[in-house]
Amino acid sequence: xxxxxxxxxxxxFWVEFAKGIIITNPVFVLVLGLCPTLAVTSSIDNxxxxxxxxxxxxxxxxxxxxxxxxITPAMVRIPVFIVVIATFVTILSLxxxxxxxxxxxxxxxxxxxxxxxxIILGRAEAFAQKSSVLYSIADALGIGIGFTISLLIVSFFxxxxxxxxxxxxxxxxxxxxxxxxxxxxxxxxxxxxFLVLGLLLALFRWLGVLKNE
Amino acid sequence: xxxxxxxITIFIxxxxxxxxxxxxxxxxxxxxxxxKKLSNAISxxxxxxxxxxxxxxxxxxxxxxxxxxxxxxxMNIIIYIVVIASLVQIVEITIRRTNILLYNALGIYLxxxxxxxxxxxxxxxxxxxxxxxxxxxxxxxxAGVGFTLVLIIMSGIRERLEVAxxxxxxxxxxxxxxxxAFLALAFMGFGGLL
Lengths: 213, 194
Fold this sequence. Notes:
Helix content of chain B: over 70%
Strand content of chain A: under 5%
Shape of chain B: globular
Strand order of the largest sheet of chain A: 1-2
Distance between the termini of chain B: 18 Å
Shape of chain A: globular
Distance between the termini of chain A: 46 Å
Oligomer: heterodimer
Order of helices and strands of chain A: HHHHHHHHEEHH
């Protein structure tokens, strides 16, 4: 009996984890958290940094909100959630400033703006405030990793087209001969972000991964 | 840092060159959500400009007279978001009590503005640029005007897109993103203005 309960718990953990990556992928399916998706995807490095930051804040806020869900009055729940999230963002921004200053510089104000990322408040409201700590962790990891993967997909195309090469933390993985000499800088500038995300959304719909409107 | 920047430079910079939506990607949710009809776009633009202005005034007073003297600038994220959330509530209550017509026009947009990244964004931009209170107010007005301008342009284009022949998988959001891309490209032309 005990073992049965354990397996169902484990199974549900994986279900909550996996749904965030594809079925309810925050960027491509729910179209949430657009500001960072467009702003920090000019390079793979920035995308990884932002993804890690969002996973940290989402995990921390989901755990705390789930722990205090029984003592949070329904009337003031949104201000409580926002203060919890803002606390974790402050911690994150101080850690980045102290240990990885280059990343802190290039993420700029978008690091502080994780506070108003609709994904995080959305998960607090829709999931963590009515679920146990374990499932809230699964949900945070799933949604966070789904978000990071989406950022990586967008930044992959933007970095290749905009610089002609692909590099991760200073190591050049490959570079395309002609393109790297005359890169299409348009793609690492703001208009390229809109164009790449628009075309990716259309592509996923055409492939049938997403529903048409 | 930029304490000598003239007010007109800040204003034009915020409206055209560092446009909130097209260059800084802030306030995208209302940009795509509310830009389907021109009348909604204007109401949303006015509401955001109003809240930006009040939020910048409040946060720059707090920043310059409380956070800097006590050396607790690192607390700005928590303090700003609480100030903005309560400010939106106060604005909503005041408008509901004094002008019911305005409330009916703007009412549904006000709660959405709390989590609008453009409002928190402008306060953080002001703080990190080291603007004085007057400069913060001017930059917030510029940001609000720029946001409203782009929202109005976008809603004009989207009203036309409604009747256009668009491939099935491009309809709705994808084509809106691509439209925004060309709009952003056009706005990049303002880059040489200052």
